[in-house]
Write a structure and sequence with these properties.
Elements lengths: L6 H5 L6 H9 L21 E8 L5 E7 L1 H12 L5 H27 L3 H17 L10 H17 L4 H13 L1 H9 L8 H9 L6 H12 L7 H22 L4 H20 L5 H8 L5 H8 L7 H31 L4 H12 L7 H15 L4 H24 L1 H18 L12 H23 L4 H8 L5 H22 L1 H11 L5 H11 L10 H13 L21 H13 L2 H12 L25 H9 L3 H4 L3 H13 L6 H16 L8 H11 L4 H14 L6 H15 L9 H5 L3 H8 L1
Antiparallel strand pairs: 1-2
Helix pairs in contact: 3-4, 4-5, 5-8, 5-10, 6-7, 6-8, 6-11, 7-8, 7-11, 8-11, 10-11, 11-12, 11-13, 12-15, 13-16, 14-15, 15-16, 15-17, 16-17, 16-18, 18-20, 18-21, 19-20, 20-22, 21-22, 22-23, 22-24, 23-24, 23-25, 28-31, 31-33, 32-34
Length: 759
Amino acid sequence: PKRPPVALSKQRKQPIDLDFVVDAVLSNGASLTMEENHWYDRDGGDGWAIEEGEVGEDGRPVLTFKMNSSVLDAGMKIAQGEKVKETEKAFAEQSKLASSMAFSRVLMSSSTARSSAVADFGKQIAARLALTLEGVKPAREIERSHVMAVEAVESSIKKNAETEEELAGALEFALENPLVSSSLAYDLTPKDLSTDEIEVTNSAASTSALAMRILNEAYVCSFNEDKAKYEKCLDLFVSSVVNACDLSNQNPKDNERKRIANAAASSLPHQLGAAPFLTPSSLNLVSSLCDIDEVVKKFSTKTPSQTIAEAAAARTAKAAAEKRATAALLILRDVAFQRDALRGSAVDAAVAIASGRLPASAQIEDKALKLVMNVIFPKNLDCSDKVITSAAKELEFATRFAIENHEKITKANEASARKKDKHGHSSKSALAPQSDEEKQALDRVRKPVVLVMALAVRRPEIIKAIMENGCRDGADVLAKAIKTNMPKLARAAATKHGAAKIAVQVADMASEKEAPLLICFLDNLVTAADKSVPSQELIDACQEIQKARLDADGKPDIRYIMPVVSGVMRVELLKELPGFVKGSDEILKTALHRMSERLGRYSMIFRDEPDPSENTLRGMSSCEQMVYLHQLDFHAIGIPQKRYLDVIRVCLEDDEVFNDRVVQAALDYISGKFLEGESLPLAYMRTIILTCSKHESLHSWICHVLLPRLVEGQVYSDKRQWEGWMRCAKMLENTGDQGISSLEAIDKLPEEQKNMYRA
């Protein structure tokens, strides 16, 4: 049989010569895989004609390169969008395919070259080609990198709503320039390389990385062409780095992805530091590296079935994720210090992480807070101003969040209150969350509040913004968060600036609408935990504030003196007592509590001045309060009799403060003064009657001590008091308790009064 012809010897257009062999060696055999339907040579030689000219002085002929006229005509038509023939159209497609394959070989050769100079030169060529060959699809060898870059931008768009417009432009750019996206993500994509090739790749790493070559080339092109090209390349690159880190977090057992993520995150600060300029959107992308909360929780949870090796891998993955997030914070720090134009954006990102608006783990949030407060803020005046501006923005975000969720939280609180009432439960604190929805909202707004309060200690004028936002309509949950953390702010501000000085300064800034938070601030300047009474300077400051801020009637507002009443002289408190009585029940109870908060041991004692000629007693014990409330001249102070009686009733109902022993001590003191010749207060007998109904433990004392004492003082000489005495005696005449009866006191009455009682 006839031997079949050798296909290669007849069909191959290129003869097997020395150039052919050298090409095959240099390209690692790539030049041998040529498709017959490609009507171009590997090096594009058929498109050029070489003419030798005269020999020059160096003994070498002058070479002239000319492009094939038909090739040039076809290229010009395609570039100008003219109608082309089918053969010319096929030529254009084949040219792009040839460019793609050639670019792929250049890129892969530069990545595996052992010489750093060769690798650097290859990356320069690849960067120039990538930006030149617009619309050329990547070859199969690097297509995976292009897909990864596109997925990275799409993922960033989902996570960064604020920069969606900029990232949408980067996504469009990646689809229009596949070779650029492939180059930027090439070093971030796992490759099927041998061990030797991996070692070569690592050894060739230098500051002239492929991504940096692309960015520099795009920056140069942006001067004459599309000015946004560099920004899109930058967003594309940072998105790819973030995506590589996310993929590593999702697959902690993939060592190759872990190696790529760690290398990318560790080199990112240096690469961005060497970049021509950065953008706010790129910084937002960098801050998304801190979004590792779910990763940390996942790797921190140990399951019973987890092996020692798996637990060790989880700890390693968690530590690597936190290290990458820390690198992101370092980038923000460097930008804030080194790039004045982007200082505000870097500080915005750092403050957003510290305040919890941008997602991050608790440890990273704490690091961000320390970065903002201890590193950026003290750097210089501009840095501190930028931090304050950013913190004010975060407080505004928190305020809007509180207002938008106000109705939802209110409904949840009402439902929770009905449920608690049904089961007989009640909230222990007014500042405690009433429902799960309110608890979540408080957690959301607490961090920006704490951050702004920390800054307010150094810049007290910020307190104005805190109170202003907290008193906006619908921002109830924000106001609750502010009140919850107000003790820390008040103590720190008082320590740094002095309680009296800061009190006056804050009062001057606060408007009438912000009065509740101003009072809360003043109230926390003096806490019950302090054993010492308020300083005279603070008392004077509060009195100054009280005089400057008038109530609806044009008189000094008594609420501003309430925080320091525990340190005010008792004789001065007697002058303020009518003002508290005229206020609401809540104001009265709060004032009485503050008066006696440092006199717990004297609650059942009416103190006498050691030296009658000098007033030294401060505050007012519970017993003294009850006595002085009875002795009020309601006509003189201008309050109705009903209000006078209601005030005493309100005190008696608060049996945790005005318990049976306090009431007994007050009634005993007043009755003793009655025997000394003073008249009984109008509400005295009414109080005894109410006490009989409320405190059964005092029945015996009233029957055997108090009522006889009043008879001794001739209580029957006052018609109203006498009627009250008879009514009280009637209530206790037959109590049913053995040995407790008012008959003993009744028998001590004169005959005329006894007959009147019996009648």
